Amino acid sequence: MYDVIIVGAGTAGLSSAIYVLRLGKRVLLLERNYYGGQIINATEIENYPAIRRISGYDFAKALYEQVIALGADIEYERVVSIENGRYEKTVITEKNSYKCRSVIIASGLKKRKLGIENEERFTGKGISYCAVCDGAFYKGKTVAVAGGGNTALMDALLLSDYCSRVYIIHRRKEFRGEKLLAEKLSRRENISYMLNCTITALNGSERLESVSVTSNDSRIQNNIELSGLFVAVGQIPDNESFSGLLELDENGYIISDNCSTSAEGIFSAGDCRRKDIRQLATAVSDGAVAGIKACEYINRKE
Fold first, then answer.
1. Mean pLDDT of 72-80
2. What is the pLDDT of residues 156-178, one digit of tens each?
3. Catalytic residue among 58, 73, 100, 134
4. Phi/psi of residue 37, each to 5°?
5. How far apart are the first and last CA of the chain?
6. Among 42, 141, 211, 298, which is least packed, fewest CB within 10 Å?
7. Is 106 within 8 Å of 269 (Cβ atoms)?
8. Residue 133 catalytic?
């Protein structure tokens, strides 16, 4: 029997664990992929208070090591459901089931796909959703990045260090990402912009060989020959396993009041819950709030 089970070992989940452990409770983290969450793929973090610059990997590693040193258990299993009993909760994974007194859901987000023909076919064969993971494989080649937010801009900067030419394809006329990142991009000579454009076809035989890009205004279509396409068109909440248990909004985010959900004794933290701002600092803040609230809930029940 654990005091608190935390679903997700990203920034919010790991931050929750710190607060729960320091309040003397026993913690189990359940993570389907790898610790650190989305931030682990960030090449540089420059907007976290008191840390001028750090890689996402180093930030996540330090946070993880802090949690493990405090005594948390962690299992790499995908959670498929939660049973919310009156006196205890049961968290069911693909392999096991675990009992606890309170649950914190910090399931985060998953990559949004383009949703066009051949995307699944070419995934891993020219299409990637992680420039940090796969960028080095395209050294000296032509690639494109789909998207206009911070992730897309950071991906393009990273890829411009490896690749001979990087196209940025964005459906809007302006980037949604930070101005500072856009200014850095403008100083790279091997980056080309295709704004107000949409990828309408993925072409190739065994691997991706080109993309068809259509102007949103003129409807003129161009074919760009390339070796790789890095998709960074946003993310969606990873909450399907909890749809019958918790109240979700129309976009699948957990509806929560200051990290408290519609189910007693179950809390949410980080990007998986409905909120206005999703940043590294707010993930840590959510983790602290959810961790303390989970402990307060347990103490009230004793």
1. 97
2. 999 999 999 999 999 999 999 99
3. 134
4. 65, -155
5. 15
6. 141
7. yes
8. yes
